[in-house]
Queue: 2 jobs
Job 1
Amino acid sequence: MVVMTRAFQIPQQRQLKTELPGPRSIALQQRRVASVSRGAGTLANIYMERGDGAILVDVDGNQLIDLGSGIGVNTIGHAHPDVAAAAAEQASRLTHTLFTVTPYENYVRVAEKLAELTPGDFEKHSILVNSGAEAVENAVKIARKYTGRRAIAALDHAFHGRTNLTMTMTYRPWPERAGMGPFPGEIYSVPTSYPYRDGLSGAEAAARTIDYITTHIGATELAALFVEPVQGDGGVVIPAPGYFEALREFCTENGIVFVADEIQTGMARTGAWYAMEHVGIVPDLVTTAKGIAGGFPLAAVTGRAEIMDAVQPGGIGGTFGGNPVSTAAALAVLDIIERENLNAEAQRVEATLRARIGNWTERFPIVGEVRGIGAMFGIELVHPGTREQNPEALTAVIRYATSHGVIPLDSGSWDSVLRLMPPVVISDELIDDAASVLEEALASVG
Ligand code: PLZ
């Protein structure tokens, strides 16, 4: 099969012209600290000007390798001309009406595509909103309305957002929650499956989760269970085989809405439209955001029509949700994923990464585990000879990498997991170059 990958305008090469951050970045950083809240912390103070494919170009003309996609957003690569054209064309025609005042076709077309692409062969309906957190909030509202129950469960190490409700569903107190309560009631964190740390099989971990739910919440009290197929911010945690199957069955038996938060894992990231496809699980509701619109704000809740329609007209909505420009961009992105066969590209990235970095546990004493699926990898850093988390090493590795033109991500409840989520169009050569820089970084720390 011929894969129609596009030609890039910017050579797909790392190229440094100044030290990083360069003089223009440093000047911008000075203005930034005088005007932007320090609450918006930054991984690397290198200011970007443009991008193409897996390359970011900073304000000093340096070309950096993007291993983060802005936390899983630029999955199709930066600055795809078709997305730019679709957004520009739409912007020149109509930027807003508010779908719930006077509707437009783009919104309906995105909902049709989501019904087709999300797992499950039943009638599905969607609501479109602006952000991942807003999608999760809406899924909570919808599940409560449908079940008439109030309790919501999320897994340990989860990340579901930063609004008051979703930060409560987000696992760790620091820095996402500390000092910012009060928090809403009826939100429970329940034990998950984290094979590297708990050593449990999927069945054992699921039994532990279910036991916790039945003894702390009550199965008949629980409206919804939220799971991420792979926990991204939580440290690229992939549950043991069989874990989700057992939870899905438990939810079905007890009338609990099973919600897959695919905000980070969806849209080709793991080599499938939705990561739940890998384990053959059909969720009742799915949340989508990040990669769906190439950086334009768009998110969705999609699910069984009878659940989505339990809400009274006017019960869910919002001013900008599913705006004409974001939905035009999304339609272009969905077309590109199909046309450029980007699920297969994510599988290629997985194979290349596995071959290139799979033996890091043997080569670097601070690497405890390398795990991943598709273009989503986590490298858990520990103190040599132990499984004790090593956040200092992660800070040092990221500092080394970013000052050498490679932008990876941090993650993990203990800030000790190096996370790689490049655009899936990244070439094998760029992966190799980036891996060499990360190896230097790991060696310099170890
Ligand atoms: N659910 C699974 O990964 C966002 C957050 C970046 P929003 N994760 C990155 C940051 O520092 O806030 C995320 C996610 C999952 C929900 C969300 C929230 O999505 O679009 O950031 O609100």
Job 2
Amino acid sequence: MSKRVFLTRYLVEQQRHDGRIPPELRLLLEVVARACKRISLAVNKGALGEVMGSADSENVQGEVQKKLDIIANEVLIEANEWGGHLAAMASEEMEGIYLVPNRYPQGEYLLLFDPLDGSSNIDVNVSIGTIFSVLRKPEGDRGVEESDFLQPGCQQVAAGYCVYGPQTTLVLTVGDGVAMFTLDREQGSFVLTEENVRIPEDTKEFAINMSNMRHWDEPVRRYIDECLQGKEGPRGKDFNMRWVASMVADVHRIMTRGGVFLYPWDRREPTKPGKLRLMYEANPMGWLIEQAGGAATNGRQRILDIAPRTLHERVSVILGSKNEVERVTSYHNPL
Ligand code: P6P
């Protein structure tokens, strides 16, 4: 059996190799990975852990919170607040930012996360996941403010997700490609199972919630209609469709075998640019996809170039196999 490389060794070698992972960032990534292990254990207990169902509360998005949403959020806060690597955190489950308490040392990083994305799937035993993004806090000794988080995705220093499915798999980038680690439950360690992940530039598989078709804008309708026409149509090939309704699961499939994921703007809530959140869903996933050779736009511009205006702002998302994303984007920007 080939020598197993655990997450810690991988991060130490990356740190030693090109200095891309300063010690504080390595600590941050190891702490987040440990928190994901704890979340995985809670998720895997299911009904046995009395963690199923909804809490009697709503999050800042106005969505009913699942008990596991709150548990996952608390696990990430508690794991990260004392280590001295962070200055503050932001979460889909919290309206404002969370400042590291003064009783703990202050670090130079900002951590953003969707603690349990796809939580509508919890009660039906379908894969869900944690998404995280790491930014540097601006220079200076002043306290961190919400505006310090409003950096474009191209400023991220690390990003990743952990998918809680048949396997628990941690996928991360620090800007030098994408690596995947599978949790060895017997040892309680993440083991390197894939590095230099590459997404095929072409695909025959699209992921979108088809029930919203009548609400889409014309460029998306045109793209999906052409896919549905199959080899008799302008694409000259048949397409397959997948929709898990869990972004982490859909993105992980694309990271593994290619594909294109679309959650576009639609007429149901025309004042919202999209359903997914820029800071802790689209930006980390967009960077991971780009680092694996794919592309990510909002239909008109690169996701990672979008200048955020608010912490929980939403965005239209088209990401995955490069040539398909470029096609959909070209339909939005006719010459
Ligand atoms: P719909 C989960 O709630 C989520 O934020 C993403 O993980 C997922 O891709 C999307 O919403 C699913 O949305 O409208 O199909 O339920």
